[in-house]
Write a structure and sequence with these properties.
Number of strands: 16
Radius of gyration: 27 Å
Structural class: alpha+beta
Shape: elongated
Mean pLDDT: 92
CATH topology of the largest domain: Methyltransferase, Cobalt-precorrin-4 Transmethylase, Domain 2
CATH superfamily of the largest domain: Schlafen, AAA domain
CATH architecture of the largest domain: 2-Layer Sandwich
Order of helices and strands: EHEHEEEEEEHHHEEHEEHEEHEEH
Low-confidence stretches: none
Number of domains: 3
Strand content: 15-25%
Helix content: 25-40%
Distance between the termini: 54 Å
CATH class of the largest domain: Alpha Beta
Number of helices: 9
Length: about 300
């Protein structure tokens, strides 16, 4: 019996069938893994009769059917007196690695086709560009909000196409997704922020603002406006003195909402949700940890930026 059971990183194959190509796609897209030929699903070692011929068939199938060709190694192993063939696939960076036009991932011991949204993310990762660097299909965009913000922040006197190129918002004479997100009005339905001020319970709605199809700067400023409306400093009597108090630090909220709006996943459906309560504010941003960073690394190591230039 083979000592290891099938897992997310190991697939056992009694004989060669084309289904192994889906697993090759999965490992190349998401993480290193191995396929062992000559071992049954239950771990029984059956061996292969002609390992040299089998290796050639595996190599030809991968090279002919997986696009682009992934990095892999083939070697023979002797176990319990039988020869088995190990195919080790390395994770690649030119994603998506497809088989018959589809990309795959491992789900425990199974290999499944990825959804369209995940396929799009693999394509973005493989392009070497972040989402904001991708080209937009928008042709007519206005940037009055951005122009005003730049004049206030750094005092620029002239705002034109060259300014947008300097900011990386125009590439190859086309607007980028970053430009689309900063434009006064856009058609990006995946860029939305919803802010709700609850009362004493979540059944009480004191205020609400929805920002959709408009500049991220408007969304950020709208969040700060809502904050200033509901969390003004107040005075409390302590002993014989009046002491100024704040409910929630504005700087902490500002940083939280800026990170949520800028570093959310724009390639998935969802909205930035800002939930305001009497004693706290909760900010939820679509997406998870950046690819390649674990929860432990997130807590104790250097961050991996979604948008390095922001």
């Amino acid at each position: 019996m083979y000592p290891e059971k099938e897992s997310a990183t190991l697939e056992l194959k009694e004989r060669l069938t084309d289904s192994f190509l889906k697993t090759v796609s999965a490992y190349a897209n998401y993480g290193d893994g191995c396929v062992l030929f000559g071992v049954a699903d239950d771990g029984t070692v059956l061996g292969v009769s002609n390992p040299k011929e089998l290796r050639l068939k595996i190599e030809n199938k991968i090279n002919d059917c997986i696009s682009p060709p992934p990095e892999y190694t083939l070697r023979e192993k002797v176990f319990e007196g039988s020869v088995i063939v190990e195919l080790a696939v390395k994770r690649g960076w030119d994603t998506p690695y497809t088989y018959q036009g589809s990309a795959y991932r491992r789900s425990d011991t199974s290999t499944v086709r990825v959804e369209r949204q995940e396929f799009r993310r693999l394509s973005i990762d493989g392009s070497g560009l972040s989402f904001d660097q991708l080209l937009s299909t928008e042709k007519n965009l206005a940037f009055n909000v951005l122009e005003r913000a730049l004049k206030q922040a750094i005092g620029i006197s002239k705002f034109d196409q060259d300014t947008l190129r300097t900011l990386g918002l125009i590439r190859n004479n086309s607007y980028t997704k970053g430009a689309e997100l900063l434009a006064d009005v856009n058609q990006n339905a995946q860029s939305k922020t919803t802010i709700i001020r609850f009362g004493r319970t979540i059944s009480e709605f004191m205020d609400r603002a929805d920002y959709e199809y408009q500049s991220l700067l408007n969304q950020y400023e709208g969040a700060l406006t809502m904050f200033d409306k509901w969390y003004q400093p107040y005075e409390a009597v302590v002993g014989f003195e009046r002491v100024k108090r704040i409910q929630i630090p504005r700087e902490a909220f500002r940083e939280s909402v800026a990170n949520a709006i800028l570093h959310r996943r724009f390639d998935i459906n969802g909205v930035v949700q800002v939930s305001m309560y009497e004693d706290r504010i909760e900010v939820l941003s679509p997406g998870g940890l950046p690819e390649g960073i674990s929860e432990t690394a997130f807590l104790y190591s250097t961050a991996v930026y979604l948008f390095p230039e922001t």
